[in-house]
Amino acid sequence: MSKVDCTGDDHRMSEGNLHFCRRPWILQMMEQCPLGFLRRRPTHNPDQFPLAISPQSSLISQRPMSIFSLITIIILLFLILVIGAFLIWVSMPQSLSSSNKPVITKWHDYTLSQAASFVAKNGTVIVCAVSQPYLPFLNNWLISITRQKHQDKVLVIAEDYGTLDKVNERWPGHAVLIPPALDAQTTHKFGSKEFINFAARRPRHLLQILELGYNVMYNDVDMVWLADPFPYLLGIHDIYLTDDMAAVKPMNHSNDLLSPGKNGRTYMGSYMIFLRPTVGAKLVMSKWIKELQIQPWSKGNKSNYDQSAFNWALKKTTREVDLYLLPQAAFPPGRLFFKNKTWVKETKGKHVIIQNDYLTSSEKKIKRFREFGLWLVDDHFVESPLGKL
């Protein structure tokens, strides 16, 4: 039987010569293969393209690319699976957290060391201790400090979790709680055992910060800054103090510690203190802690208890510590500033920090601040880092 030319359009195939006209078996298998579409290419008429390679040679040249494409797809699928598994693994700690346990932010677990490091500027931290009922006073105090551009140094030692959460919610990183937490509803009652315990924690807090190597300025929050106090911290002394007596002193009075009173101790205020991390400053804080321990709270000995212990500590360490008395005109006690109008007029423009002391209720303190134009939160709360509370 002679072969039939199957390449021309004008030739017909008969059953007898069909086996001569079938396409190569390899191409038929490729068409049946599921991946055949990756390898199939249009057939060309060799008469129209004289330089085209034969189907056999074309198939051979394509075969490595087909294998390479398959491997590439497998690799891509493998990478997608790996990346997906990694992303799921990364998100697992959040999804597996207990539903009945609140999420603890990094500020909630903040240590005192971390907190001090976060706020310290030029080796200095401005510290206050606050329970929740005193948050309005904290805000008022912060406005006055912000006006002097020292707010970034402030560290609020929260005495309860409500204060801790509120401050760090509004001002992340500027509040820390040193356990144990106190009862926010009882610590604000002046003269109560809880109030005394609250105040007695102060020297421990200050000593801890000194041990970390920072300068510390402590303020009660019922104070207002009218000017920058740091230019008044002259020289290199262990502790800078304010006089709590209302008696008027000469404008150029000595910066040495005053002579003790009739009972043998001085009357320095514990509401505003600046300490350097020296042996002397740490000694006074340690003595203050001991004085609080040997004179336990009682109903007959509760007024101004922590300040009395502070002055006994000063008396017992006077020869070992370098003390500096700040000028009265700049740092007057409240009962001088708010009571002696003549003195206030004579010293106008010299006042730096005002203490709203010797009042036993928050309402009375706020009323007095308002009368003297020092209650700032009513109209200037936007100046506080905490905003409106």
From TrEMBL:
Localization (cell): Golgi apparatus membrane
Membrane-topology descriptor: Single-pass type II membrane protein
Segments traversing the membrane: 67-92
A Gene Ontology cellular-component term: Golgi membrane
Record GO biological process: rhamnogalacturonan II biosynthetic process
Residue intervals of the Nucleotide-diphospho-sugar transferase domain: 150-369
GO molecular function, one term: UDP-xylosyltransferase activity
Annotated keywords: Cell wall biogenesis/degradation, Glycosyltransferase, Golgi apparatus, Membrane, Signal-anchor, Transferase, Transmembrane, Transmembrane helix
Pfam families (alphabetical): Nucleotid_trans (PF03407)
InterPro entries according to UniProt: Nucl-diP-sugar_transferase, Nucleotide-diphossugar_trans, UDP-D-xylose:L-fucose_XylT
Top-rank taxon: Eukaryota
EC number of the protein: 2.4.2.-
Similarity comment: family membership: Belongs to the glycosyltransferase 77 family.
Record-given protein name: Glycosyltransferase
